[in-house]
Design brief:
- This protein is of the alpha/beta class and 384 residues long.
- The chain has one domain: Rossmann fold, CATH 3.40.50.1820.
- It contains nine helices and 18 strands.
- Strands 1-4-6-5-9-10-17-18 form an eight-stranded mixed β-sheet, sandwiched between helices. The protein has a two-stranded antiparallel ribbon with strand order 2-3. Strands 7-8 form a two-stranded antiparallel sheet.
- The longest helix is centred in the N-terminal third of the chain and has 25 residues.
- The protein is globular, with a radius of gyration of 21 Å.
Length: 384
């Protein structure tokens, strides 16, 4: 076979694959996309001096879509987690419709951000400092194939990743291609994004925040700072547990104690507690002697009488946890901390609603649109 003929066969197969890929995206959702408006903008950060030069840091890239038939009163701002960008919500690594388009197709205006210091928001070494990177050895057991190492009790129940979840599998390779360097200083990440989301809300008005993983601290702190503009929080496995990291290390003793990383309970930075506190040390802590169940971590709580998170009280809050994620052992601790602090929330296990086998990156998994429909249903019933 001549080289030109070989190329023609290859090109034909490639075009066929692309067409099939596009067809999958078109027909895997119940409604077509009908857009009234779409675009992108950047939320300005702050000017800083680097030597003799003036630059900007803390800016945030935002892209948005407004449906032709907008049926929900508030837009949804989707904020990705650590090492990720907004691409998490734009599609799946095997070519299916993502949460952003699904929400738009069902009547929501949607804003998808790249966190400050991430992706299209830009990284500025002189200001942001050292980074941390996702590796294949970290991403595989944590996100795509937790069943292979079983570092936490629920890991073996994972079934929903689209493919093997291992390097060399097409869906894994496309997912891993989206992983990016992140600011190493977690407190800086929280501070920058709290400010940027606040400015975004000032610009677009009242909104619902959909936060995933590391962005959990951004959701709580942004609502604390702009309580009148946050009409609901959809917390998808938000960063946790309160106070101290849970280290998943495998059988027989699955859980170990990591560093104190959220000294204000659910955030690294200060929150408006009532009675007021000036320092996180003023929160008097107690810890469960035994967990609520054998496969769960032990929770921290405040010693009574508890300080209240008054700015968050009254905001409809969903905390959603999958069956097999590394969050499954401890997300209930976040829900309990908030409830004790006077913040009513709905803590929901997907398995209690017949949605099984999901991991932490549920927005990318085979049943992602089933989960999207559940979240939309909760939002419609609780955010007014």
């Amino acid at each position: 076979m001549s080289s030109s003929l070989k190329f023609g066969v290859f090109a034909g197969a490639l075009l066929c694959a692309i067409a099939t890929h596009a067809q999958d995206r078109l027909f895997d959702a119940g409604k077509p996309l009908e857009i009234a408006d779409q675009g992108a903008f950047s939320v300005p950060g702050r000017y800083v001096q680097v030597g003799k030069d003036t630059i900007m840091a803390g800016q945030m890239f935002v892209q948005y879509q407004v449906p032709k038939n907008k049926t929900r009163p508030y837009p949804v701002v989707m904020i990705h987690g650590g090492g990720q960008t907004g691409i998490n919500f734009l599609g799946t690594p095997d070519g299916r419709r993502g949460w952003a388009d699904d929400f738009v197709a069902h009547g929501y205006a949607v804003y998808v951000v790249d966190q400050s210091g991430r992706g299209r928001s830009g990284f500025f070494t002189d200001v942001y400092g050292e980074t941390r990177k996702s590796t294949v050895d970290n991403a595989t057991p944590r996100f795509t194939a937790p069943e292979t190492k079983k570092l936490w009790p629920q890991a073996e129940k994972h079934t929903q990743w689209p493919g093997t979840g291992i390097q060399g599998d097409a869906a894994f390779d496309e997912f891993y291609a989206t992983q990016v360097e992140t600011i190493g200083n977690e407190a800086m990440i929280e501070e920058l994004n709290r400010a940027a989301v606040g400015k975004l809300l000032d610009r677009i008005g009242p909104a619902v925040l959909l936060v995933h993983s590391q962005a959990g601290v951004v959701g709580w702190s942004s609502a604390d700072e702009r309580p009148q503009l946050v009409k609901g929080i959809l917390a998808i496995e938000p960063s946790g547990p309160p106070i101290q990291e849970n280290v998943a290390k495998g059988a027989p003793d699955f859980f170990g104690d990591g560093p104190v990383t959220r000294p204000f309970g659910v955030t690294r930075g200060p929150m408006a507690y009532d009675p007021p506190i000036k320092d996180a040390a003023e929160l008097k802590l107690v810890r469960q002697d035994k967990p609520d169940a054998p496969d769960l971590a032990r929770c921290f709580a405040q010693a009574e009488p508890a300080h209240k998170l008054s700015h968050l009280a009254g905001i409809p809050i969903l905390i959603l946890t999958s069956e097999s994620s590394y969050h499954a052992p401890y997300d209930h601790c976040t829900a309990k901390w908030l409830a004790q602090a006077g913040v009513k929330n709905d803590f929901i296990h997907l398995i209690d609603h017949g949605i099984r086998g999901n991991g932490h990156m549920m927005m990318l998994e085979k049943n992602n649109l089933e989960i999207s429909a559940f979240i939309r249903g909760w939002e419609a019933a609780n955010v007014h």
